[in-house]
């Protein structure tokens, strides 16, 4: 920001670090969490478009709805649902992290990123075995 | 020695507006408020539909009929529908602003996002409020058990 060079020193000017700094979203945890947040957000959006259409089949006939929900119960789709839940759980926890950065304190963004990863691992460890048992035992 | 970094996305394509409603600000607030509510709604949705009982293998028309005749789940689903689609649509708009550089492509993409969100909100809302758990002529074994009492 050239107009700031004359005034109070910015965070970028005060630092002795050689790495580009001054924005949370450049490099390392701050950037990768953002990349993942974007990719998962887009993936969930496209799933949701299809999901509302498949749910709408309850207005067509019980047979039509059962045919499509039966697809959700196949092994391939079972793996897809695992990926979807992985995406939504990351997006949800990291979304809360973004909110905490904005309204609470950006200082803890790295710690909070590892908390997000930790909560994600715990949630997935609880969910995946149970879900895959349901999918593959039927 | 320090590195100077250009402020992201400057200069502005259009001068920032100085008066009137700051829609970008309200969009920013909406993403955060809807996000908090969506955590509860979506985790609850996945807990009931994927975790309880036999999870995904238990889903069928009769299961949905049990939920969509209950006002609690009707309100839950409609809230989730509106909040998630507007949140996702507004998020997609951010991506178009970031990656689509031609005014025409931007226009087409944003219009397509808006149209799909609007159509699906109307469709999903109608599905929840016009749902018929016991459609005439459907085989009884596919229907929820309370239909036979009619
Ligand atoms: C694999 C995971 C999922 C399964 C098996 C599933 C299953 C279902 C089922 C059976 C219904 C019918 C109504 C009900 O149960 O309440 C439904 C409706 C709905 N689901 Fe999901 N769901 C999944 C993931 C999601 C996700 C991640 C979202 C949000 C982004 C979502 C949003 C919705 C909405 C908005 C409705 C209501 C649709 C309408 O108004 O017509 N679902 N889902
Ligand atoms: C589970 C609860 C959710 C939370 C806590 C959450 C939170 C957030 C937050 C805080 C943002 C950042 C907005 C900004 O930077 O201004 C965001 C962006 C986004 N969200 Fe969500 N969200 C959730 C669910 C969803 C769902 C269901 C969808 C898809 C239908 C979605 C799609 C997106 C997209 C596409 C973006 C834009 C990404 C970007 O600008 O990089 N999110 N979300």
Give a written overview of the molecule.
The complex is a heterodimer of chains A (138) and B (150). Chain A has a single domain, classed as Fumarate reductase/succinate dehydrogenase, transmembrane subunit (3 helical TM bundles of succinate and fumarate reductases). In chain A, 73% of the residues lie in helices and 0% in strands. With 138 residues, chain A is mainly alpha-helical. Chain B is mainly alpha-helical and 150 residues long. Chain B has a domain at 29-131: Up-down Bundle (3 helical TM bundles of succinate and fumarate reductases). Chain B is built from four helices and no strands. Chain B has helices at 23-51, 61-68, 71-99, 103-129. In chain B, helix 1 packs across helix 3 and helix 3 packs antiparallel against helix 4 (103-129). Chain B is elongated and about 75 Å long. Chain B starts with 22 loop residues before the first helix and ends in a 21-residue tail after the last helix. Chains A and B meet through helix 2, helix 3, helix 4 and helix 5 of A and helix 1, helix 2, helix 3 and helix 4 of B. Bound molecules: protoporphyrin IX containing FE (HEM) (2 copies). One protoporphyrin IX containing FE sits between chains B (42, 45-46, 49-50, 56, 59, 64, 67-68, 73, 77, 80-81, 84, 124, 127-128) and A (44, 48, 51-52, 55-56, 72, 81, 84, 88).
Distance N to C terminus of chain A? 60 Å
Task: Using the alpha-carbon principal axes, give the shape of chain B.
Answer: elongated
Class based on secondary structure composition and strand pairing of chain B: mainly alpha
Which percent band covers the strand fraction of chain B? under 5%
Mean pLDDT of chain A: 87
Number of strands of chain B: 0
Q: What level of helicity do the residues of chain A show?
A: over 70%
Residue stretches of chain B low in confidence (pLDDT < 50, at least 5 long) are none
Strand segment count of chain A:
0
CATH H-level superfamily title of chain A: Fumarate reductase/succinate dehydrogenase, transmembrane subunit
Rg of chain A, nearest Å: 21 Å
What does the oligomeric state look like here?
heterodimer
CATH topology of one domain in chain B: 3 helical TM bundles of succinate and fumarate reductases
Please mark out the parts of chain A with pLDDT under 50 across 5 or more consecutive residues, or reply none: 1-5
Counting DSSP H or I runs of 4 or more residues, the number of helices of chain B is 4
- Biggest β-sheet strands, sense, barrel of chain B: none
**CATH classification class of chain A:** Mainly Alpha
- Tally of domains of chain A: 1
**Helicity of chain B, in percent?**
55-70%
**From the alpha-carbon coordinates, what is the Rg of chain B to the nearest angstrom?**
22 Å
Please, how many helices of chain A? 5
